[in-house]
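User: Hey, my collaborator sent me this sequence without any context and asked if I could get a structure. I don't really work with proteins. Can you help?
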Amino acid sequence: MFECRTFITVKEIGEVLGVSESKSYGIVRDLNKELADKGYMVIPGRVSRKYFEERFYGVENETKVKEVQHAGE
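Assistant: No problem. I've predicted the 3D structure and written it out in structure-token form, which is a compact way to encode the shape of the chain:
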């Protein structure tokens, strides 16, 4: 099955940041609103992984570790 690494999901955000699902949805909504205000198209429930990593300083390393772990499964 194809796994898209371009977008990060609500579940992944919760795991990376250690927050609840409802908080993760709020983060996705906020980030997608920022992107939409800049003229980008967005997907509800997902946000650009690159943009997420830019906005949450230090998260990039954590998500790369998780990607490596998932690749080894």
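In plain terms: Residues 9 and 20 are 13 Å apart (CA to CA). You can pass these tokens on to your collaborator as they are.
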